[in-house]
Write a structure and sequence with these properties.
Radius of gyration: 15 Å
Distance between the termini: 57 Å
Organism: Pinibacter aurantiacus
Pfam families: Cys_rich_CWC
Number of helices: 2
Number of strands: 2
Shape: globular
Protein name: Cysteine-rich CWC family protein
Oligomer: single chain
Length: 76
Amino acid sequence: MNTCKHEPKKCPRCNGGFECKVGDVANCQCNGISFNEEQKKFIGEKYRDCLCRNCLLELSKQMGFFKEKFDVTSNR
């Protein structure tokens, strides 16, 4: 018996549709995209539901750029 849950969702950031595979995370569209705890907290406070893969990838690039550009701990 297959108990995996797949749920059609609408991304709260871009309004695009996607399928969330909460019961099969290894095959979910968000698999393989990593955020640190600070980034997860920021995203969780701004969006109350899952984001599509494109938005997650875009945010990961933006957050990486922001950290690289404005990181006060660097020795530049």
